[in-house]
TrEMBL record:
Domain of life of the source: Bacteria
Alphabetical list of InterPro entries matching this protein: DUF1822
Protein name (record): DUF1822 domain-containing protein
Lineage: Bacteria, Bacillati, Cyanobacteriota, Cyanophyceae, Nostocales
Pfam families given in the database record: DUF1822 (PF08852)
Length: 321
């Protein structure tokens, strides 16, 4: 009773517009089963309600960059994310009236800057934004764990004003602390394998390069989209680290093909730059490479950057050992 009263006091009640209901129903109609249709409808309502609220608060969003706006992702996954410009993906999880807790699918535990819970009434006419939490580790989220909506606005403001090129701290990886977006190779593999449109075809390559690493090796992977349609052929950047003697760390970088292509795009480059921005290692894919790699050693606190580029497009990740 106390939790319910607290939620009622802090929750924000918003109307669900006819346009929002129409879009949610349109997305639901594309689904193969009634159960999936209901899931997509509720997810879409939660995302659009939250999008309207952030627009009112003059916080820019990008619906089309969200997985929830991708028909393939809607079909293959239980996602309700909203891309907040210059911040990241905010997961907007719907709940029905009288549900005692909120379900957070494990597939949404990574690449999210936070989670909001949106309660949708039975008539789909109104929604309450109950609150938010910035991190989850279980599939059942108790309402008592939620912070008020005002705290979300402050939190998003802090993220928007923080440096955009945040350092990835590799030493923290050794204690199982990983930045958003960096997943295990296996989880990323399973995610891509579960989506027919990706037609993940580099299984032989991955097996040949021995992804079953010993305990002393830590490895994480991230999808890189170089402006190419992500359902077609994103590339996967894999970073592998292993501590050595004398405060040295061995680092191996690999760039793998994914999508419906066996090989990497011809000419795609994997480049390592030192702290001054000077190139000291690089590799370029030829016409029949399904992966390229670079290996080097560095010292604790040493900084470097990794750039993936193709023609005039490039994405750079910044690291500290």
């Amino acid at each position: 009773m106390n939790t319910t009263q607290k939620l009622d006091d802090s929750a924000l009640l918003l109307p669900i517009s006819q346009t929002v209901r129409f879009t949610a129903q349109q997305f639901a109609n594309q689904q193969p089963t009634a159960e999936k249709a209901e899931q997509v409808q509720l997810n879409t309502l939660a995302v659009l309600v939250m999008n309207d609220y952030l627009q009112m608060m003059e916080i820019p969003t990008d619906l089309t960059a969200s997985d929830s706006w991708n028909p393939v992702m809607r079909l293959c996954a239980n996602v309700a994310d909203l891309q907040v410009s210059s911040v990241g993906r905010l997961e907007c999880r719907p709940v029905r009236l009288h549900e005692p807790a909120c379900y957070i699918p494990a597939e949404t535990w990574e690449e999210r800057v936070g989670y909001v819970v949106v309660q949708v009434d039975e008539s789909l006419q109104e929604a309450r934004i109950l609150g938010f939490i910035n991190n989850v580790t279980t599939e059942v989220l108790s309402f008592s764990q939620l912070q008020p909506l005002e705290a979300l606005i402050d939190y998003l403001g802090q993220l928007r004003t923080s440096p955009t090129n945040a350092l990835v701290n590799l030493s923290q990886w050794l204690t199982n602390q990983f930045e958003a977006g960096w997943q295990t190779v296996e989880s990323l593999w399973n995610l891509l394998e579960s989506k027919p449109a990706y037609a993940f075809r580099s299984a032989i390559t991955l097996e040949e390069t021995s992804f079953n690493q010993p305990e002393t090796i830590t490895r994480r992977a991230k999808l890189i989209d170089l402006g190419i349609q992500i359902v077609d052929r994103p590339v996967m950047l894999v970073v592998e680290i292993s501590p050595e003697a004398d405060r040295q760390t061995s680092i191996r970088l690999q760039l793998h093909s994914t999508g419906n292509q066996i090989y990497l795009p011809t000419g795609v480059q994997l480049i390592v730059l030192d702290e001054a921005g000077t190139v000291f290692l690089e590799a370029q894919a030829r016409s029949a490479d399904n992966y390229i790699q670079l290996q080097f050693r560095g010292e604790i606190q040493e900084r470097f950057s990794v750039r993936v580029s193709l023609d005039d497009m490039s994405i750079t990740e910044h690291f500290v050992i």
